[in-house]
Every structure is written in C-alpha cells, then in structure tokens.
Q: What sequence folds into this?
C-alpha cells in the first residue's frame, strides 16, 4: 500500500464529499480509491469512513487520521519543492483559498505569481471564511485571502494586509429615465490611464447614497452564513432596518447575473463591481451613512515552515507594485460628474 497516495485520496474525499468526484480528482477509478481507503483502514485497524450507499462522513478515528494525512502531505509538498527549486526559482503547487467577494483580486494575484514565478502552479479555491480558517488549521490550504477582522481573533494566523474594501449598490432600473448618467471612473481605470493603457467603457453611476435608501430596492444578498452578509446585517441592525432580500445565493456570479437581469439591486464590494461589464440601465452608487470599510488580508498558518512557493507568494503580497495594483482594482469608485440628486429611480 502506498501510504502517501492513500492520504491523498483521503484528503480528496474530504474536499469533494463524494467517492466518484474524489476519484476523478485523483485521476483514478472509484473502485481503486475505495480499495485504497479500505486497505488504509485495515492497516491502521480502525474504520475511517462512514459508509452506506454513499459517503456519510468520517468516524472520530477517521478525523484523527485525516489531520495526520494533511500534515504529512504538507511536509511532502514542502520537501518536493525544496528539492525541485533553485535560488530565486521556486517550483511547486500553492493552494489559495479566497472568500468569494475577493475572488477577482485573488485571481489577479495568482496571475502575477505565475508571471513572476513560472514554476509555481497556483490552485485557486473560492471558499467561505470558516472553510478558509479550517483549511489553514488542518494545512489543506497554503494561504487564504479574506476578512482581516476574523483572522485577527485566531491564534497562530499571520496576516499580510492587502487593501480596504468599500461597498456599493449595483442596481438596474426597469426603464431609462432619459437623464444622461454620469460615468464612473474606478480606481482601476485611473490606474490604467496613468499607465497609458486603454480605459474600458465605464458603468453609469449616481452619487453616493445612504444605506437606508439602498434597502428600499429589491435586494439580492449573499446567504446568511457568509461573512459578507454578516457585515451587511450589522449595518442594517445599526440603522434599525429590517431587510428581506428577494433573492439569496452563495454565488457572487449569480448575484451579478441577477442584477443584470433586473430590475434588482445588490450590495457589492469594489473588487466585484470592477469586474461588471456596462449595460443599459445598470448603475453603481457608493454607499454611505455609515461608511463601511472592510480590511482584506492574506493569512497563513504560523505553525509550519512555509514552502518555497508560499515564501514567494508572501514576498509578492508585500511588494509595493502588487499592492498598488490590488488597490487599483478594489475599494472606492469615483464619480466623474456630480449630480444634483441621489435619487434612485423606482423599479
């Protein structure tokens, strides 16, 4: 029995929660995966997986084995990277977990990393905050990008601050009012202009509006278990507002598409707004009263020695040019022409 392979299969089963999908991820047949896990159980003398006709979870002993498996796989990957890398040329895999609302920045970071270090192979996963925290704890993740305020409360987590997120209302009117909309100039466009790059057509925007006015729209929100939703609920509660969204989803893509299909609205961070293509009737307005600012940071485990790939990633995460780029594609949006009214046309 190949113990490393068995541990790899076990980790895949934890991630995919399905025998067939775990086998596909490991590029083996389902019977081969099942046989390897049964052989591991026989070798250790304990049941690891709870089975019926499908995967039902891990036994208490299985959870202990899984924790050891993650540590061994992490040590093996670190060793492989040490042996394969040379000075200034790291090689190996880097598993990045990111909260969905920071996914555009994480994708940009992965692209920068590959450009500067072609030997690194990033694996980007969109995850809830609690899953990122668990992944850093059990070593199934190398690095996470998420909400700094959550990570600051956890022992053994190191933070590398990245940017401060601002919040905006993205909305689509049922029909055009005939008024010529102002053009939004995002920080990304200002960055492009300063670099002599072509500037894309911008979304239409109104001036800043208060949160209390934004909730008068039919809102699409992320689901309650997601930390971004918890941030919004904190604002709503502070204003004494009761918000009943017309649609809830755990997908930021579904959030954007629902607004584009309109006439709906969603509260989004600048990193997401910067990815939305302009369309007739689609607008964005910065939200104020209160001004919600959310620090976003990379986080890593302080309990283990970083791999060569992780060392390179942390070095990049602290570079001034990367930080300027990240902040150019997130945070605040600037209005190019003021308007006399902050009114949002009704649906």
A:
């Amino acid at each position: 029995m190949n113990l490393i392979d068995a541990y790899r299969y076990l980790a895949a089963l934890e991630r995919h929660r399905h025998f067939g999908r775990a086998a596909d991820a490991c590029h083996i047949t389902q019977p081969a995966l099942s046989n390897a896990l049964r052989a591991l159980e026989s070798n250790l003398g304990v049941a690891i997986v709870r089975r019926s006709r499908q995967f039902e979870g891990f036994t208490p002993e299985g959870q202990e084995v899984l924790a050891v498996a993650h540590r061994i796989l992490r040590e093996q990957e670190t060793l492989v990277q040490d042996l394969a890398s040379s000075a200034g040329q790291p090689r190996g895999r880097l598993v990045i977990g990111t909260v969905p609302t920071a996914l555009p920045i994480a994708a940009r970071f992965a692209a920068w990393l590959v450009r500067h270090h072609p030997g690194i192979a990033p694996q980007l996963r969109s995850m809830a905050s609690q899953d990122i925290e668990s992944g850093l704890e059990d070593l199934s993740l190398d690095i996470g990008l998420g909400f700094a305020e959550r990570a600051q409360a956890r022992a053994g987590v190191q933070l590398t601050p990245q940017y401060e997120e601002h919040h905006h209302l993205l909305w689509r009117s049922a029909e055009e009012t005939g008024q010529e909309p102002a053009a939004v100039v995002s920080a990304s466009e200002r960055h492009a202009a300063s670099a002599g790059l072509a500037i894309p057509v911008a979304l239409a925007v109104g001036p800043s509006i208060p949160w209390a006015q934004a909730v008068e729209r039919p809102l699409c929100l992320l689901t309650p278990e997601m930390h971004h939703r918890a941030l919004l609920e904190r604002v709503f509660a502070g204003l004494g507002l009761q918000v009943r969204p017309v649609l809830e989803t755990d997908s930021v893509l579904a959030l954007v598409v629902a607004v584009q299909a309109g006439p709906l609205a969603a509260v989004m961070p600048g990193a997401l707004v910067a990815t939305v293509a302009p369309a007739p009737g689609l607008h964005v307005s910065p939200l104020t009263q209160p001004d919600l600012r959310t620090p976003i940071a990379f986080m890593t485990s302080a309990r283990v020695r970083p791999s060569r790939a992780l060392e390179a990633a942390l070095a990049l995460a602290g570079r001034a040019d990367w930080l300027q780029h990240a902040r150019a594609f997130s945070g605040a949006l600037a209005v190019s022409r003021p308007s006399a009214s902050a009114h949002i046309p009704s649906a």
